[in-house]
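Action item from last week, closing it out:
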Amino acid sequence: MDHRWGLLPVRLVVGLILFSAGYQKLFQVGLATVQANFGRMGIPLPQLTGPFITGLELLGGLGLLLGAFTRGWGLVFAIEFMVTTFYVKLPQGWTAMRLDLLLLAVSLLLALEGAGPASVDAVRAADRATSPLDRRVEGRVEVTR
């Protein structure tokens, strides 16, 4: 069995966590409150970063749920969680930063390993590999015309 199937539950759970966080910020808490909270936490430019992070979590969370552009979303979320872990939560202590540190580690995992099977990324990779214009032969691309 392909060990990359282990990425599926990780990707789905993190995608769900991030999508629901963005949804909650936008539709339940409200952007004005998010911006005020970001300002209280000392995050620079809360009028811009609040909506930006909200949209990032909504779109990126959905991207992870679908397994679309997973490496890119993983990298973006790794940056987000480096900031939240070490800039926002570290001064509050270990208990406050545990979840953010875990999300940082998982984001790095997804950035390095990708989505795994059962993802849009896997379908796109399979389509490229079976293109009639090129055929992969022993690790090199051989173009056929």
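Closing note: The first helix runs from residue 7 to 29.
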